[in-house]
Amino acid sequence: MLHDIGKVGIPEQILNKSGPLNPEEWDLMKSHVVFGAKILEPLTPLARIRQMVLHHHEFFDGSGYPDALVGEDIPFGARIVAVADAYDTITSDRTYKKGRPASDALAELERCANAQFDAKIVQIFVQAMRQLPNPIIEVASLSTGRNS
Length: 148
Hints:
By secondary structure, the protein is mainly alpha-helical. The chain has helices spanning about 10-15, 25-30, 30-40, 45-55, 75-90, 100-110, 120-130, 135-145. It is about 55% helix and about 0% strand.
């Protein structure tokens, strides 16, 4: 629930832009992880969650942001949030794109394992999502009219 809290610091015209972001807008959008960590900083009992917020856009291969962390240097919780966040992004309608079916999202996560995502977490996530019955996939399919 808190992973994108820093987006409160991003101007609405960037958050709701219907087309691609220009490089300056993209840099500002990426700063949401730092804003989120700053918001949570005074809440010391949430220190582990703060690390998840700060690092949920780090890529397993080191090409993510904000610190270009690699592999298991990325906090475990942040690696989990990255997979769940990507699944949600792929399957959700946005101002700039139509959501895709759950099956497409799972295939994309598998394709990006060991590069963007921790392959072990992807494997567990995909396996859990493919078990039937799966209320998350069923609810998503029913509410959007898509098949999983």
